[in-house]
């Protein structure tokens, strides 16, 4: 029985990746985790979901986000997602950073 190239589950199907190429998910895993965390934190701030922000911000900081970057996100949120969202997120960010310094 001959396999169809459109069905990757069949034997004989070819991968479109070059031999030896790493997937983008594995390449630079630490920075990838930081980037995904940054997207999550930014999304929560932009949508005004501050109840979940502290936990995700702590995870983002554990994944390599710097305190300076966290502050920059609040500034960007103010301009792109509205000042009310930034003013709601600001105290949460400040509290998380204060607790991490202790």
What does this structure look like?
This protein is mostly helical and 102 residues long. Helices cover 60% and strands 0% of the residues. The chain is built from four helices and no strands. The protein has helices at residues 29-46, 53-62, 67-80, 83-101. The longest helix has 19 residues, at 83-101. It is globular and about 25 Å long. It starts with 28 loop residues before the first helix and ends with a helix.
Name the features:
mainly alpha; 102 residues
Helix content: 55-70%
Strand content: under 5%
Indicate the overall shape. globular
Q: What structural class do you assign from the helix and strand content?
A: mainly alpha
Give start-end ranges of low-pLDDT stretches.
20-25
Number of continuous helical runs: 4
Total number of β-strand segments? 0
Describe the biggest sheet?
none
Radius of gyration, whole Å: 20 Å
The topology string of helices and strands comes to HHHH
End-to-end span in angstroms? 67 Å
Spell out the blueprint of helices and strands.
Layout: H1 29-46, H2 53-62, H3 67-80, H4 83-101
Helix pairs in contact: 1-2, 1-3, 2-4, 3-4
Can you give me a brief rundown of this structure?
This protein is an all-alpha fold. It is built from four helices and no strands.
């Amino acid at each position: 029985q001959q396999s169809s190239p459109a069905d990757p589950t069949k034997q004989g199907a070819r991968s479109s990746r070059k031999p030896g190429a790493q997937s983008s998910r594995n390449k630079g895993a630490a920075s990838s985790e930081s980037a995904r965390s940054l997207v999550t934190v930014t999304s929560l701030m932009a949508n005004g979901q501050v109840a979940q922000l502290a936990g995700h911000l702590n995870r983002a900081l554990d994944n390599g986000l710097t305190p300076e970057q966290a502050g920059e996100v609040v500034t960007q949120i103010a301009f792109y997602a509205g000042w009310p969202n930034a003013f709601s997120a600001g105290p949460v960010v400040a509290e998380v950073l204060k607790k991490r310094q202790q």
